[in-house]
Amino acid sequence: MATSIHETVLIGICDGVIDKKKNTSYCTNKIGARPDLLPVITLQHPSCALCQRGLSHVVQVYCPLAASPYHRTINVFACTNPQCYGKSESWTVLRSQCLDDCIKSSQNNKTTACTESAMSRTDWCDEADDWGMDEEEQVAESGVQMPNEGNEISSRLQELCIDGDHQSALQPINVPVFQPFYMSVMEESDLDGFHDTDHENELLREYEEREGVTVREIQSCESGEAQEEYEKATAKHGDEVFTSFMKKISLCPEQVLRYSWAGSPLFIAEPPSSVSQTVPCCAHCSSPRVFELQLMPALVSLLSSADTNSDISLEFGTVLVYTCRNSCWKSGSTFPVEEFLVVQPDPDQKLFK
């Protein structure tokens, strides 16, 4: 699905391995490792609905909404059992929130500069006005209103984070742990000046050879050029959705995450005829859920075991995460809220290996 012309999309990119000697926190955007819990949050480790194995932590995204007083983190988990690959039931997404006063109280009002890579903690939402909801905006016929798309996104990095005892979620010993990486963030609109690495160029070359079409031809045919060019540029597999997906990410094939709160997802395969009916309302406040982020195919190659003696992997095309539009949170709650996700298998998984 194409994004709106006014829609702002942020791109998450792998930004290096996290040193075992360095602590991360709830405000670290990262791949793998164990989730870092917000103060007062208690996590009952999730298990697979299909095989009952413990789920491995895939990504952590710190994404507070501008008009909200809450710190806000999203953690995505998945089952590494090959028999569960590509099935939404083997994944879980949890949203955790905590008031700043609770954090300050738990850390004795001590703050310090974060020591991890600054870009790994770029704000997805904090101070980004078109991802929050003012009190006036929450009053509408449905009880809520979409944020103003006209406001600008702040690219300023958060300089401080809360220091204190490093709190990481307890995880059963037998649950595989993925190697940890930082995620850096950039706006998709800034990708015009972004240069692909040799690896990404090789991925595109392999795709073009296999499908008998270049990305430039796809772009030309989709821009309305002659019909004969369109016929020549049709991918061998005939999957227009997948072709459109590849065209959209061609400027940055190594993107591991796309973020656009209340935006439009980028489907890798034909979506259900009615996505709005497929995505259930929030189980806690009955508010509609909105698209917030998705995991991208390039993430697959990064998901290897943190234990060199273990061999684990995960396969998917894209994972679409939908969250409560109100981002509802019960005062005093100490448990994460489970949100909704959809897993789409990759129609051509070999491209991202």
Automatic annotation (TrEMBL):
GO cellular component: cytoplasm
Protein known as: Programmed cell death protein 2 C-terminal domain-containing protein
Superkingdom in the source lineage: Eukaryota
Record PANTHER family: PROGRAMMED CELL DEATH PROTEIN 2-LIKE (PTHR46421)
Limits of the Programmed cell death protein 2 C-terminal domain: 239-344
Record organism: Onychostoma macrolepis
Gene Ontology BP term (one): apoptotic process
